[in-house]
Specification:
about 0% strand; about 475 residues; mainly alpha
Amino acid sequence: MSLGKHIFGVSVMTGISRVFGFVRDLLVAHVFGAGRLSDVFLAAFKLPNLFRDLLGEGALSSIFIPMYTDRNKDEYFAKNVFSWLMVILLFIAILFEIFMPIVVWILAPGFADDPGKMQLTVVISRIMFWYVVFICASAFLSAILNAFSRFLLVAFMPVLLNVMLIGALLLAAWFAPMTILYIMAVTVVLAGILQFAILWGRIRRHHFGLRLIRPRWTPEIKSMFKRLGIGIVGNGFYQITTIVGTLVASFQSGAVSWLYYSDRMIQLPNALIALAVGTVLISSMSNAMAQKNMASVYRQQNISMRQSMMLIMPCVVGLFVLAEPIIQYLFEYGAWTHESTHAVAMAMMIQVLVLPAMMISQIYSKTLYASQDVRTPVTTSIISLIVAILIYVGAFHFVGYLAIPIGVVASGYLKNYLLRRACRKRDLIRTESRTRRAIAAFGALAAALGVVLWFVPITNIWVLFAAIGGFAIVYLPTAYLLDKKI
């Protein structure tokens, strides 16, 4: 299959989803403001999102797809995993419905000080939590489709949720904000049901033979859920590190917001490029390894490295050089001060340096997952995240909130090194000399254009867009020709 075509398709859908997500956030702010109802919605929405991150997306597909392809896409194995997954999800949903008051109190203890706020959050959370069942089940159906190299529909699903929530928010012209809150909670669940129905219909239409059966506890199922548990622990450490970073930053006024906006800017190219590459590679490399075709694995790794680094390098340089004007012309309105612009830009200029490591780490980690090695990616994540926390705490006294992006960069390159070493020990990766030369050429070209860009006076948002466009017009065709020549 064409790696570039599939990566481009997933990347485009991710970009569309981010645009609709931005519109959704603007409407939430417009309808609810930054007050009581906004707090309730965001707190209630955080819980199903946490389960989706831990169970539904990365961990499930990274564990299931290699096992599924290694068994020649055995229908009984898929049915059995699906049936067990539905049993577990229903059990989790019922358990959380019963103990939701305790869960909400743990996640948002401050709500208890506002009469009625805690109770309202519990009600909205109980409605919205059923989304977990459908979105995690949809993630499994997505893994099936990805295993058959059908990526586009799967990548479109997050767009559907954002579009439906935007539709619910537009009803604010006819309903009171409290009513809109309940409508949004129901809309989240309906979006999960619709996503599941669309993916289920596509699977049935392609005769993949998936259906619910009486679940049986087999050695394969035991291995599957053992690996899934390890993967969830690894993802959980990332959540813990994010929380620790926020806690450390909270000791400096404004730092939590500065780091939030910086991270949002850095995560955009990461989602558009790195995560798209990871989504496609886990399927294509699992198929190649199931066929014992290591030459194909090496070829896919090198192609994806060259193509992704061609796109990541200008993002690194552009976000570094234009950090301050980007934040100034996007956010410096109303209560937003120039001090905040400068603070966010400083964090961005440090954190953006981690993008190449994050990109290459995706390729290394997906290679290990495709070889059915779950422990190594999780172990390296835990080690690197512990190092990040130590840097957060140790450096905060000296550089303040900038300790957080410094820790992110240092731990990112440490993780990259550990993953590469693990792949090389098992002869799972072979980086061609032309790939190294191409990456060096992309970096040199982007840096040279960045020096020129540094001296361009950015006086308004239109000049900013023109500078970015001019950078892309010169860089992309030149980088493409360099890649072809090398």
